[in-house]
Amino acid sequence: MSTVSSSPNTSPPSRATLTRRAAIASVSSATVLLVLKAWAASATGSVAMLGSLADTGLDLLSSCVTLYAVWLAGQPADEDHRFGHGKAEAIAALMQTLVILGSAVAIGVRAAMEIGTRTPPQRADVGIGVSVVAVALTLCLVAYQRHVVRMTQSIAIVTDQVHYESDLLLNLAVIAAFALEAFAGLHGADAVFGIGIALYLAYGAITSARAALDMLMDREWPDEKRQTLLGVVARHPQVDGVHELRTRSSGVVDFIQFHIWLSPEMSVRCAHDIVDEIEADVATTFPGAEIMIHIDPLGHYDRPQVLRA
C-alpha cells in the first residue's frame, strides 16, 4: 500500500503574498457590504445606517489603497530605493486615517442636524438583518487579518484590521439604534448613535495615525527594545562601550546603526572579526535587520555630542 506525502519543496507563503491576500479579502468584504448597506440605507432612511454605509465606502477605498501599498512594499530594493519600499505601508495607513477622520466629521454633523427634525427610521428588520450579516462577515475578515498580522507585522494590515474591528462596534450600534427606535419608541436614538459612531471613528483614526507617523518620521525604537540590543552587543568581552546608537523601522525591516569602542592596538583583522560576530548575534535577536557598525578607538567620538544610547 502506498501513501501520498506532501512535496518537500512546499514552503509557507511569503510576507508579500500573505499581506496581498489579506488586502484582497478586505476589498472583497467591503464591496459586498457596500451593496448591502446601500440597499438598507435607502430602505430604512436611518442616519446610523447611512453612517455605516459611508464607513464601508471608506473601507473599500482604504482597502484598495492598502492593496496597492502592500504590493509596493513587497517589491525588493532597487537603485532608486536602496532601503526598500517598506514605508509605502505607513503612507497607506496615514491616508486611511485622514479619510476616516473626514468621514467621522461629516457623519457627526449630519447626525447632529437630524436630532429632533426627522421621522424615525423605517424597516427595522432590514436594518438589523443587514447589520447582523455585516457583523458575521467582519468577524471572519478580522480573524484572518489577525493571522496575517501575526505572520507579517504589516502596519498597513494592522491599520486595516483596527478599522474593521471598529466596524464591529459600529454595526452593533446600528442594531441598537434600530431596536431602540422601532421597539422601545426612543425617538432620536438613531441620531445619537450616529454621533457616537462618528466620535468612535475619529478616535480610531487618530490612534492609528500615530504608528504611521512614527514610522515615517523614523522614530527611535522603544527603550526596552533598545536595551535588548545594547545587551546583545555588551555580551562581547572585547567591546569597551557602545555609543551613537540609532534605530528605526521601515515596514517590517529594522535598521540599526551604532559605534563600538575597541582597543586602539587591535589589528584590523581582529576588529573585523569582532564586528562580524556582533552582527551575527544582533541578527539572531532581530532577524532581517539591516545592521551598520562603526569602529572607534577607545575614548574617541566622531561627533562633538554623544547621542543617547
What is the secondary structure topology, with strand pairs?
Elements (H helix, E strand, L loop, with lengths): L14 H30 L2 H27 L13 H28 L9 H29 L2 H28 L6 H28 L6 H12 L6 E10 L2 E10 L5 H18 L4 E8 L12
Parallel strand pairs: 2-3
Antiparallel strand pairs: 1-2
The coarse overall form would be: elongated
Helix content range: 55-70%
Distance between the termini: 64 Å
Mean pLDDT: 77
**Tally of separate helices:** 8
Secondary structure tally: strands: 3
User: Strand order of the main beta sheet, please?
Assistant: 1-2-3
Q: Uncertain segments of ≥5 residues (pLDDT<50)?
A: 1-10, 305-309
H/E series = HHHHHHHEEHE
Largest sheet geometry: 3 strands, mixed
Rg for CA atoms: 26 Å
Can you describe this structure?
The protein has 309 residues and is mainly α. The chain contains eight helices and three strands. Strands 1-2-3 form a three-stranded mixed beta sheet, with helices on one face. Helix 1 (15-44) packs antiparallel against helix 2. The chain is elongated.
